[in-house]
User: What shape does this take?
Amino acid sequence: MGPLIPEILSDQWNNIIAIITGMAFGFVLESSGFSSSRKLVGVFYGYDFAVLRVFFTAAVTASIGLLFMDYFGWIDMAALDGLPARVWPIIVGGLIMGLGFVTGGFCPGTCITAIGIGKLDGYMFFGGIILGVFVFSEMFPLFENFYNSSNLGDVTVPEYFNINPYWFTVGVSIIAIVAFYAVMLIQKRIKSVEY
Amino acid sequence: MMDIKSDKQHIYWNPYLGGFLLGIILIMTFFFTGRGLGASGAAKAIVTQTVHTVAPTHTENNAYYSDQFLGGKVPISNWLVFEVIGVVAGAFISGSLSGRVFFRVQHSPKITARKRLWFALLGGALFGFGAQFAKGCTSGAALSGMTVLSLGGYIAMLSIFGGAFLFAYFFRKLWL
Assistant: This one.
């Protein structure tokens, strides 16, 4: 049955759904405090673990939900967009993004929510993204070979390690719960930061 | 403007509630469109469309730009551009309800606003640059990728957060 576009709903609905989805996404991120860079980076200094809690809860909830919907035949999980595992480009890109996170205090999605509530540092961060994308695009011929290297294709973790996807998700959920408990203990020991 | 600020300013949702609702939004997005959420892709669309308007032959000669025009596509009408417009609106609504909408620079009291803005620009540039290698950022690559159990999504999550933990020590004076 799912995804509904383009089989059941026509393509014209796509942009309308994009705006509605974006509004819900922005509302939840902002309400969870993700428009605050000082709250976001708290996870890297141990004084606020909202990022870890929200991020893991969302990933686990969504995975479990989709697995159930796939099981009931409401959605074909294999037809959904995954991220092709270009191992080294993703690792290098991820490390650069990590550096950007602790210097800039946002990630692209959260900087958009900061823009929505008038934070000028959010506007600057977005300007930076535009600059970074432009520089990368212009330099692309230099990176082209690396960019397309070490591609394992659109494979899932359970497929790659040949394990059961249900048990894998149970495992990730347990890791998440253990992490939630651990950060609760850590937070009690760390001096709180006013922001 | 001042009277719009309220004492609810610093009160946010329980993170597990926020995470659960975000998970539901992800499920619905995949159910309707077959794709996940994202953010950095909108910046890519803006850059490509702008460069193409200024120098059309230049974009045709660069594979990174020209791939976004394949099949007569218009980069600026990318799904993510509309989604990001929605994110601005959604954040504005949420912020308004809690009295958080006003212009300011948020920074640690130990650094100046000017320093915060320069580092925000630098961080954004690094994030934008890195997201191109990974074909996505925290939302598009890591979160949406993990939702569909994608190996690439898990690698992205581990390297973004791993990288941030790795470098956090060197930039502690910006935040603590």
Chain B has nine helices and no strands. Chain B has two domains: 1-103, 106-176. Residues 113-134 of chain B form the longest helix (22 residues). Chain B has a mean pLDDT of 94.
